[in-house]
Amino acid sequence: MLNRIWTFFFVGGFVAALVRALTGHPEVWQDMVGATFDMAETAFKIALGLTGVMCLWLGIMRIGEKGGSVELLARAFGPLLRRLFPGIPHGHPATGSIVMNMAANMLGLDNAATPLGLKAMKDLQELNPQKDTASDDMILFMVINTSAVTIIPITIFTYRAQMGAADPTDIFLPILIATYCSTLAGLLITAAFQKIRLADPVVLGYLGGMTLLIAGMVAYFGSLDRDTMQAQSAVLANFLVFSVIIGFMLGAIRRRINLYETFVEGAKDGFKVAIGIVPYLVAMLVAIGVFRASGALDLILDGGRSLAGSWGLDARFIDGLPTAFMKPLSGSGARGMMIETMQTHGADSFAGRLASVIQGSTETTFYVLAVYFGAVSIRKTRHAVLCALVADAAGISAAIAVSYLFFG
């Protein structure tokens, strides 16, 4: 899929450039060649600048991991998950793997979340009577993964900082709201397919409590004028992020973990991640740069603006849609679109903030589906794709709505 998308950007850009050149714009070839050099340089600078921030946050996350933060979340959400996955016997290893995977996702521990998710899938496959067909529990687990609530979207904060955002964390609350809507929609439609009893008091307690919290935040911030709302949400976001850091440290101190050595251990992984991302970032940003320089992307976006205008809608959200369209297909492609949008319009523009919120609202559906189901040789996915795409649509719609609320 990623190969086709990457090829489409170049071929589509070439075709669009031919049309422009034949209609009196021969400078398009110079623009496209210039874009390849400019975007390659931009990609390297971003990746180089990421090194310090990634080292910092992966070091902090390693402290939280060893200090028991993931385990604490696992215990907190265990009662809920036992009711959502009724096919798993009490005490089966699958329960622990699922809880640990979700907790790691919530904390933004991507390196830990994927291996835990694959282990959970293998544990669920042991309980699956039809080895080539996804079970109900496997589908629900996959859908929750593709829409999982992320409490700390560290990577997005980092990219926004690199692109010059005045306050990189100002999208914290909008992302939290959007990703919660995505997760809730995914859970509701999957429960409808599988006839999961959501009226259980424990399930209602968890979902009701989280929904009231999110609704209360939206109601409170929606009652403020825009400047006050942005100021207070920024303060709250930064306070919560720093509180998590202190909480990680206190947990590690309680376990008598050496904070400094643990931090350095995690920071080493941050360096590897930042350097390893260079080729992928160069590939996607150059392809997207060529596509925009050819005029193809602007042509598509102008069509979207005209359509939105004919319906009487504010068309500013159109500039964030490339990230939305790419997100279910490719994580690196969506990341490239988000960065390109911030570079073109500014990190603190409405489009730049919207692209960031969309990036954090859902996961890469088809990648997760391919990796998780492929790891256990599942060929028949039943209603998994439909449920995951509904969750994606809900998350993206919520991202647009909440971006207008906070930044419009």
Mean pLDDT: 83
Distance between the termini: 34 Å
Using only CA atoms, what is the Rg?
A: 22 Å
**Class from helix and strand fractions:** mainly alpha
The tally of structural domains comes to 1
User: Quick one: how many beta strands?
Assistant: 0
The helix count comes to 18
Please state roughly what percent of the residues sit in beta strands, choosing from under 5%, 5-15%, 15-25%, 25-35%, 35-45% or over 45%: under 5%
Provide the low-confidence segments as ranges. none
Largest sheet: none
- The helix/strand series, from N terminus to C terminus, equals HHHHHHHHHHHHHHHHHH
Shape estimate:
globular
Task: Specify the helix fraction band.
Answer: over 70%
What does this molecule look like?
By secondary structure, the protein is mainly α. The protein has one domain (32-407). The chain is 78% helix and 0% strand. It is built from 18 helices and no strands. It has helices at 2-22, 28-66, 69-84, 93-106, 110-127, 136-146, 154-162, 172-194, 201-222, 226-254, 259-276, 278-293, 296-310, 321-326, 331-345, 350-361, 365-375, 384-407. Helix 2 (28-66) packs across helix 10 and helix 6 runs antiparallel to helix 8 (172-194). The longest helix is centred in the first third of the chain and has 39 residues, at 28-66. The radius of gyration is 22 Å and the shape is globular. The chain starts with a helix and ends with a helix.
Topology:
Layout: H1 2-22, H2 28-66, H3 69-84, H4 93-106, H5 110-127, H6 136-146, H7 154-162, H8 172-194, H9 201-222, H10 226-254, H11 259-276, H12 278-293, H13 296-310, H14 321-326, H15 331-345, H16 350-361, H17 365-375, H18 384-407
